[in-house]
Specification:
single chain, 189 residues, alpha/beta, Pyruvate-ferredoxin Oxidoreductase, domain 3, seven-stranded mixed β-sheet, 6 helices, 39% helix
């Protein structure tokens, strides 16, 4: 891993990007890494575009600003592709993970993204079929683990177990299945 791995999450308020950002960071912390995770809101209302950020490093993190050159971008709502330049600042070789039923090749061609790896999965469907609720954030944690290797998927599952086991034990099994399924189903180009 480079000095600092940076992840930028794009979502609509209420989709769980902030929670996913925190869970990814906390999983990395459990693996002995230094972390940061925080949201950035625009208009504070449900459905408004928002961002969340995660930084993970083997060394203490001295940066305290939004992520401008992310190694990974996670898009929880594909409608944001027409509203926000989610690829802004992504360097060649970066990863963009999109919650969509479209193939990675389709997204790449439609957006004109050439020097990045695009990963896609239908996190909404996975969430509905495993959790029974339309929250794509948990499946996307599995996709991030597979696409990047920043954090092992089993450590992510342990963090989700720790968090949801206390708050929502009734949703724990479905969320763990969502992570596993996303890890297996995410595809890239």
């Amino acid at each position: 891993m480079q000095d600092v791995a940076e992840v930028r999450w794009h979502a609509r308020a209420g989709q769980g990007a902030k929670t996913a950002s925190y869970m990814l960071a906390e999983a990395a912390m459990e693996a002995g890494k230094h972390i940061q995770a925080f949201p950035e809101y625009g208009p504070e209302r449900m459905g408004a575009p928002m961002k969340a950020y995660t930084r993970i490093s083997d060394k203490p993190i001295r940066i305290h600003s939004g992520v401008e050159a992310p190694d990974v971008v996670v898009v929880l709502d594909a409608t944001l592709l027409d509203v926000v330049d989610v690829a802004e600042g992504v360097p060649a070789g970066g990863n963009i993970i999109v919650n969509t039923s479209m193939a990675p090749e389709e997204i790449k061609a439609k957006r004109g993204w050439k020097d990045v790896t695009v990963w896609t999965l239908n996190a909404d469907t996975i969430a509905m079929e495993t959790i029974g609720r339309p929250f794509p954030n948990t499946p996307l944690l599995g996709a991030v683990a597979k696409a990047t290797g920043i954090v092992d998927v089993n450590v992510v599952k342990e963090r989700v177990t720790h968090t949801l086991g206390k708050k929502r034990p009734d949703l724990l099994e479905g969320n763990l299945k969502a992570i596993e399924r996303a890890y297996e189903e995410v595809r890239s180009s």
